[in-house]
């Protein structure tokens, strides 16, 4: 009996939240291990829609949720989200939601630095979510982060705030942005600390105990491999590693407990924010994908750029992410196209290449090579069994499997929780 780790294989928004929610019925604990509230995971259950950014999707099923040490936690966003889902009828308490007390915090200085830097970049902006994610991870690596456990210790907090402000105020002043006073940050923290501290705990120890007593753990990735700080389209990436290996280090379990790695891929491709996107469409097909797929950012409402399925990138994500099987989502969005294309390779300055190059200049110059597949007229929307799928849709899935060198083990055919087809149970692998 294995654990399962879910990761995105494209540029995010593949439907990880829906799949995690669906799989959570088979799990006891759902763990977020990287990223922060830059994520936006949408779950549709009957007439309720849940939009989660920081909280693990398993809470919707009443499962224990864990925010691991690898996550950067904005206390204000955390408490607001707890309040929001509570108003939607979920029960969230320190018994059902554990936050690693060694997780680094996002404070208003991080948000200010993120935004000021993006503004200063002008045309070369990354298109971040503006939520302070990058600066918070930088502070963690630079050993000046304030962590959840520090909120309980006034003395520690005092000198840590000095160090944090020295860094950020210098930067903000240089960028011509307003700086922060120590008192303002102290007030911010004083307002939130008593409410978030009860959730703090030694999460790794609780996970260890739960695992040893037989609990099944589902690790919920945020973002995706093409946004991974090492393996993605650097510098147009997020500031964490998003590959499955991080489920272990980002929650404090050993690498043997990551279990089956389920990569999530859309049946086409989207990206929000700046950066290279070889199979991007600027024609009516792109508009159709965007409209049918409701491709607007969950958090920011920004329209997502749309393109055909890029098999080169997903194959790369399968390999560097350690993916054992793929959940292919939003197949229904392709219903009714006369022809569907798959990017099977690139040319770079006229020469064929079969991997995405590392250099940003080369990433910008690659041209996609497309293979055309006949579409299908029947609807797959809401299909719940393989037998309900048109032959051409099955052909499309089989071709994708061949190109990405991984099996499609799960299919999703609508936003609704139960419109899902299971071919192979990842917990049984
Ligand atoms: P995540 O960030 O990977 O969790 O994905 P998001 O929730 O940001 O974006 C995926 C969107 O597609 C959400 O609005 C989902 O409700 C929706 N969705 C998920 N799976 C399907 C599917 O199979 N078909 C359709 N039409 N929509 C889906
Ligand atoms: P989920 O979990 C899509 C993108 C941002 C930007 C880049 C860096 O919903 O799939 P950041 O604020 O992280 O420094 O921004 O990463 N980005 C996402 N795009 N889905 C996400 O999460 C994303 N999280 C960050 O748009 O291009
Ligand atoms: Mg999302």
UniProtKB/TrEMBL annotation:
InterPro entries, per the entry: Adenylosuccin_syn_GTP-bd, Adenylosuccin_syn_Lys_AS, Adenylosuccinate_synth_dom1, Adenylosuccinate_synth_dom2, Adenylosuccinate_synth_dom3, Adenylosuccinate_synthetase, P-loop_NTPase
Organism domain of life: Bacteria
Reactions it catalyzes: IMP + L-aspartate + GTP = N(6)-(1,2-dicarboxyethyl)-AMP + GDP + phosphate + 2 H(+)
Binding site for IMP: 13-16, 38-41, 129, 143, 223, 238, 302
Record's subcellular location: Cytoplasm
EC number per UniProt: 6.3.4.4
Binding positions (GTP): 12-18, 40-42, 304, 330-332, 412-414
GO MF annotation terms: adenylosuccinate synthase activity
Location of the active site: 13 (proton acceptor), 41 (proton donor), 140
Keyword Glycoprotein listed: no
Alphabetical list of Pfam families matching this protein: Adenylsucc_synt
Pathway, per record: Purine metabolism; AMP biosynthesis via de novo pathway; AMP from IMP: step 1/2
Cofactor: binding details: Binds 1 Mg(2+) ion per subunit.
Name of the protein: Adenylosuccinate synthetase
Lineage: Bacteria, Pseudomonadati, Pseudomonadota, Alphaproteobacteria, Acetobacterales
């Amino acid at each position: 009996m294995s654990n399962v780790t879910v990761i995105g294989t494209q540029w995010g928004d593949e439907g990880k939240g829906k799949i995690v929610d669906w799989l959570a019925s088979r799990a006891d604990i759902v763990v977020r291990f990287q990223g922060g509230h830059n994520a936006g995971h949408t779950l549709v259950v009957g007439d309720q829609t849940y939009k989660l950014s920081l909280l693990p999707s398993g809470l919707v099923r009443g499962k224990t949720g864990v925010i691991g040490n690898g996550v950067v936690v904005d206390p204000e966003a955390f408490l607001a989200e707890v309040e929001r889902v509570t108003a939607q009828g979920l029960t969230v308490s320190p018994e059902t939601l554990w936050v690693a007390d060694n997780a680094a915090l996002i404070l208003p200085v991080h948000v200010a630095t993120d935004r000021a830097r993006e503004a200063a970049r002008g045309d070369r902006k990354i298109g971040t979510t503006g939520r302070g994610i990058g600066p918070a991870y930088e502070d963690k690596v630079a050993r000046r982060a304030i962590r959840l456990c520090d909120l309980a210790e006034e003395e520690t907090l005092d000198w840590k705030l000095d160090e944090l402000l020295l860094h950020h105020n210098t930067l903000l002043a240089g960028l011509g942005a307003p700086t922060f006073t120590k008192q303002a940050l102290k007030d911010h923290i004083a307002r939130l600390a008593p409410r978030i501290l009860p959730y703090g705990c030694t999460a790794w120890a609780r996970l260890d105990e739960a695992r040893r007593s037989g609990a099944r753990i589902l690790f919920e990735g945020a973002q995706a491999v093409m946004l991974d700080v090492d393996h993605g389209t650097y510098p147009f990436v997020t500031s964490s590693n998003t590959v499955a290996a991080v489920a272990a280090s980002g929650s404090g379990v050993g690498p043997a407990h990551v279990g089956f790695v389920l990569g999530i891929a859309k049946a086409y491709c989207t990206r929000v924010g700046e950066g290279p996107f070889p199979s991007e469409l600027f024609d009516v097909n792109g508009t159709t994908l965007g409209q049918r797929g409701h491709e607007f950012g969950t958090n920011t409402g920004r329209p997502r750029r749309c393109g055909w399925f890029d098999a080169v990138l997903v194959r790369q994500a399968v390999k560097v992410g350690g993916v054992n099987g793929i959940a292919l989502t939003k197949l229904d969005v392709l219903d009714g196209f006369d022809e569907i294309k798959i990017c099977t390779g690139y040319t770079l300055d006229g020469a064929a290449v079969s991997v995405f190059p590392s250099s940003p200049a080369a990433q910008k110059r690659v041209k996609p090579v497309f293979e055309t597949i006949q579409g299908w007229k029947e609807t797959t929307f809401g299909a719940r069994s393989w037998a309900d799928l048109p032959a051409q849709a099955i052909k499309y899935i089989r071709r994708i499997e061949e190109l990405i060198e991984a099996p499609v083990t799960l299919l999703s055919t609508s936003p609704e929780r139960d419109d899902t087809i299971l071919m192979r149970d990842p917990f049984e692998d």
